[in-house]
Amino acid sequence: MKTNADLIVSNASEVVTCASATDAKKGAQMLDTGRLENASVAITDGCFAAVGSAAAIDREFTSDNVIDAKGKSVIPGLVESHTHIVYAGNRVGEFELRIKGADYLEILEAGGGILSTVEKTRAASEEELFAQSKKRLDRLMSGGVTTCEIKTGYGLDLKSELKMLRVILDLNRKHACDVVPTFLPAHAIPPEWKGKEDEFTDLICEDMISAAAKILSSEGEGPFFIDVFCEKGAFSLEQSRKVILAAKNVGFAVKAHVDEFTNLGCARFAIENGAVSIDHLDATSDEEVDLLAQSQTIGIVTPTVNFNFGSTEFADARKMIDRGCAIAVSTDYNPGSAPCPSIQTAMAIACRYQKLLPAEALNAVTINAAAALGRQTTHGSIEPGKQADLLILETPDYREMAYEFGWNFAECVIKNGKVLV
């Protein structure tokens, strides 16, 4: 007798599973997509029940709800591992300044950049922030993102950072996309603390982190992350160390923005302190790349940032993979350095400028991105028991996602076994 499934996705040209039940894919493993030809997927209770040849699934399962993939590609739901999409306003004016030649740090030092978004975000109500941010999350989901990390970091005072955190948690409750919160109070030095950077760092460590931990622990679901922007003009290595250690002390898992413009040594410190991910990596040294390869930390690269800045220099993800690192790719969707809601575009840029092959790029936005959020055992691949998040693409070959850039190939988005798009 056949087993009844809640949903069967049948007649796919390929089911690209990205299978890796417990671990991220490192180095040469990133070429393995777990591709099955002429395959089908059975889903029960919001989880994958089985994946295999169309004939095998047809022999074992029956369902009143069958989606015919019509010879198209089926892949896991995409995982966005680094975003800043809870904010108010935009920074269109700065876009013009950059075109005229101003760089990121110059704009920041002049009171623009993050600080201009801070002003607007502080002034916005929770309802306004939720409404604006939901639209951005909708855009990500329409492009195939079914799990999304979102950071605070545009409040930079206790009241506003906690307001952002509540909005992020509210998005997780009310939006179909799974939302993973990251607390980023150490994103920039606010104007009122200029010249008192150490004192502001102490405020983060003594007041903000504990307040955020109280809110997050009440949610009863984790892991929860701390993040810090270790960079010239933001937080020094010593300040970043203090934030990371204070947050670890109350149970936060660690993420860190490192080496985006200058190498201050935070990559090593973060890895040695068990960071789940280190992000950007444009100025990471060979020694630190080797340390990353030897660790369980995921290196997240953000090629849309470099593209948006008009740069031809990118984090050397090719070298990192060849040396055995586990790499994820993200849009870094934010109002200043990467106003990009398309993770498929990030994949395309990573292939062209960072020399990832399409297989590596797909693993970098599925299983490895899930590992960068501590969710690799439940998300990021099509395997029995994992959450049933998948896409039917408008192509029989997943590689077209990176090949034909500027188009959204997500024809059907399924989350927890239910069709969303």
What is the structure about, briefly put?
The protein is of the alpha/beta class and about 425 residues long. The protein has 16 helices and 18 strands.
Task: Give structural notes.
With 421 residues, this protein is α/β, with parallel strands linked by helices. Helices cover 36% and strands 21% of the residues. It is built from 16 helices and 18 strands. The strands form three sheets. Strands 2, 3, 4, 6, 7, 16, 17 and 18 form an eight-stranded mixed sheet that branches. Strands 8-9-10-11-12-13-14-15 form an eight-stranded parallel sheet. The protein has a two-stranded parallel sheet with strand order 1-5. Strand 3 and strand 4 form a beta hairpin. It starts with a strand and ends with a strand.
Topology (elements, then pairings):
Layout: E1 3-4, E2 7-16, E3 35-44, E4 47-53, H1 54-60, E5 61-62, E6 66-68, E7 73-76, E8 78-80, H2 92-99, H3 104-109, H4 114-123, H5 126-142, E9 145-151, H6 158-174, E10 178-186, H7 197-217, E11 225-228, H8 237-249, E12 253-258, H9 266-272, E13 277-280, H10 286-293, E14 298-301, H11 303-308, H12 317-322, E15 327-329, H13 343-353, H14 358-364, H15 367-371, E16 390-393, H16 400-403, E17 410-415, E18 418-419
Name a few traits of the molecule:
421 residues; eight-stranded parallel beta sheet; single chain; alpha/beta; 36% helix; 16 helices; eight-stranded mixed beta sheet; 21% strand
